[in-house]
Amino acid sequence: MHVDRTGGGSFPRFTLMTLAGRTLGAIPPTAQVLLGIVSVQIGAALAKNLFSVVGSTGTVALRLFFAALILVLLWRPSLRLNRRAWTVVVSYGVVLGTMNLCFYLALERIPLGIAVTVEFLGPLAVALAGSRRWLDAFWALLAAGGVVLLMEGRGDLDLVGFLFALAAAACWGTYILLSAALGRHTSEGSGLAIGMAFAALVAVPFGAAESGTALFQPWVLIVGIGVALLSSVIPYSLELEALRKIPPRVFGILMSLEPAVAAIVGLVVLQESLHMLQWVAVFAVVAASAGATRGSARPEV
Would I find Cell membrane among this entry's keywords (predicted)? Predict the structure, then answer.
């Protein structure tokens, strides 16, 4: 990440930013979303292994701090933004930081697959918002039924964790809309880098208060960098680039595989097995999103 060691030249910075932008731009937007899904779920599984050492908020602090540092070094964003752009960037950062705190607090209490399935109601709501088709009402009811099955599938499901996941869902829906605005008001990864810095400012005080000096263990810092790359830098860069080319509603629909990927990653990496009804619930939410995708794909083209 040593972009410009001389301190005065602009060529290295321009070359790296241009290369990154062209690399992301060469990937089809649908593939960008799918790659982001896989990356963020593997990152979440890796992050969960840090909970016993630095806690959930400490893990969020590491993730967002290193993500912000990497993105700022990569893009070297300009601070010359108009008032509207600053409003969008700051709002994006605050929502992003809050979303991550809520999600990791949920992840500390409930399995990855369940946390993501509940959180996914946010983008699904964006996908269905404003629709007047009766079939879309059916998909919404199917998703709601999936959430009910999650609660019924295992009696000891932590209610606080479930509520944190719901809060993360609300933030995620807002994040999708703000990401689209961020893409319109900023160039390349500049807005993402500044927004991530504000997200880190939201999370770091909570993480430092919970974990203290444990954050500075060398191996913890190394794992934190890996979590930042997998859970923030790679997926958010891919998503932001995708949102430059596709509407927020389509983006929300394309995320339909997220709960299933999370459940599979949780099973394989974390050995978190779900009960049969909970698997049915996960795929009910996936089916609801897939159905909404089929019903709304033509109008959006």
Answer: yes
Q: How far apart are CA 290 and CA 283, in angstroms?
A: 10
Structure tokens at 133: 């088709």
* Count of alpha carbons within 13 angstroms of residue 285, beta-carbon side: 34
Which burial class, exposed, middle or buried, applies to 7 when counting CB atoms under 10 A from its CB (0-12, 13-18, 19+)?
exposed
| Per-residue pLDDT tens listing for the chain (301 residues) | 333 323 333 334 444 445 555 556 677 888 888 899 899 899 999 999 899 999 999 999 999 999 999 989 988 888 888 999 999 999 999 999 999 999 999 999 999 999 998 998 887 787 777 667 778 788 888 888 888 887 765 556 788 999 999 999 999 889 888 988 888 888 767 888 999 999 999 999 999 999 988 889 999 999 999 999 998 888 877 877 887 787 766 776 677 788 888 999 998 888 888 888 888 888 888 888 777 666 554 433 3
Quote the CA–CA distance of 47 and 226 in Å, as a whole number: 9
